[in-house]
Specification:
Strand content: 5-15%
Largest sheet: 4 strands, antiparallel
CATH class of the largest domain: Mainly Alpha
Shape: globular
Number of strands: 9
Length: 389
């Protein structure tokens, strides 16, 4: 008799991974099981980011995982980075967001667009978790239209003076530096801004019902003066921040797979133990249909992200492919989290269980770094050649 399949990996996607990729996944999975899951429900309840985990996250090489070792990174491939995101988000979207912002939105632009001096100065300490970054692109009025940017940077002698505001900034009140994008006379440019600079203020956003175990902030820049070498020299225009977002969105395609797996595992355990009308809840056809549909959708998402990772590592990845994966995989996860909440009945509304926490977190994930509608329109533009934005 054939052995039963892994309910969280029906197509044995793990067998398609290299030894290094499996090792990375296993190490992050152990970290999530041993250090994240025991505390994350309470962190969510308290609206507290678990700062105490940062040293171990850094020690595992999870910050700037794909940055070359010469700059303090781990030199991993894209699939390894995806698996890191998957296992961290199996714990909580807020933890994956922290690592994603640090790696893809802060370390990546310094590596890709920065000077050699900037790389040497910041990247090793960021990989070690000694310098935390945030990414200042989104503005209060801008949302899905980043070109409608009001933050400005004016040249004043050898310095730059920045004025403006940014909103919904992950890590804002944790950060030592901010990667701030601003309009200049030469188009949109990026700047490395120390957060202790005079005129820079970060104000934490409270009363959140989503990403409660994450730090979300508004940034205000009032005549913030930085030296000329704060400018990222190797990029201008929207392709700079959009290039960063492509890196981060790639990781987001993997993260929700972990959230969905956590919810399915919880639902499988709960329905096996819950007795109603003389039999386990899992013996009901209605429940099995729900669980089977969850497994189908997780399997499709796993294969999409793995192929996306292989394309990335081959240098063939296209932004439209990332949009399709983010749209599909986050929609998959939020639907599964909501369905699992329902399967758990009344128990599903408490943070003693994971489903409601993941469902609430995914309300943010489906919105940030490109709403679902934006990614649908990106795919539509690719299919038709017509920009409908």
């Amino acid at each position: 008799m054939a052995a039963r399949l892994n309910p969280l990996d029906l197509y044995d996607v793990r067998s398609l991974l290299s030894d290094e990729e499996r090792m990375v996944q296993d190490s992050v999975a152990r970290f999530t099981d041993e250090k994240v899951l025991p505390i994350i429900g309470d962190c969510f309840d308290q609206g507290r980011f678990p700062h105490e985990l940062i040293p171990e996250i850094a020690g595992l090489g999870l910050l700037g995982a794909t940055i070359p070792e010469a700059y303090g990174g781990a030199g991993m491939n894209g699939v390894c980075y995806g698996l890191i995101c998957q296992e961290l988000e199996r714990g909580d979207s807020g933890l994956r967001s922290f690592a994603s912002v640090q790696s893809s939105l802060c370390m990546y632009p310094i590596f890709a667009y920065g000077s050699e001096e900037q790389k040497q100065r910041y990247l090793p300490k960021m990989a070690a978790g000694e310098i935390i970054g945030c990414f200042g692109l989104t503005e209060p009025h801008g949302g899905s239209d980043p070109a409608n940017m009001k933050t400005v940077a004016k040249k004043d002698g050898d310095d730059w003076v920045l004025n403006g505001a940014k909103m919904w900034i992950t890590n804002g009140n944790l950060a030592h530096i901010a990667i701030v994008w601003a309009q200049t006379d030469d188009g949109i440019r990026g700047f490395i801004v120390p957060t202790d600079t005079k005129g820079f203020t970060a104000q934490e956003v409270h009363k959140k019902m989503s990403l409660r175990a994450s730090v979300t902030s508004a940034l205000f820049l009032d005549d913030v003066r930085v030296p000329g070498d704060a400018l990222l020299p190797s990029v201008k225009g929207l392709k700079g921040p959009l290039g960063c977002l492509t890196q981060a969105r790639y990781g987001i395609t993997w993260g929700p797979i972990g959230a969905a797996q956590a919810c399915l595992k919880e639902a499988l355990d709960y329905t096996a133990e819950r007795m109603l009308f003389g039999r386990s809840l899992s013996a009901n056809q209605a429940i099995q249909l729900k669980l089977a549909d969850m497994a189908r959708r997780i399997t499709a998402a796993q294969l999409i992200s793995l192929q996306l990772g292989r394309l990335k590592d081959a240098g063939a990845l296209q932004p439209t492919q990332v949009s399709l994966a983010k749209w599909n995989n986050v929609r998959m996860a939020i639907d599964i989290a909501r369905e699992c909440r329902d399967v758990l009945g009344g128990a599903g509304i408490t943070t003693e269980h994971a489903a409601i926490r993941h469902a609430l977190n995914l309300e943010s994930v489906i919105t940030y770094e490109g709403t679902e509608t934006v990614h649908q329109l990106v795919v539509g533009r690719e299919l038709t050649g017509i920009n409908a934005f």
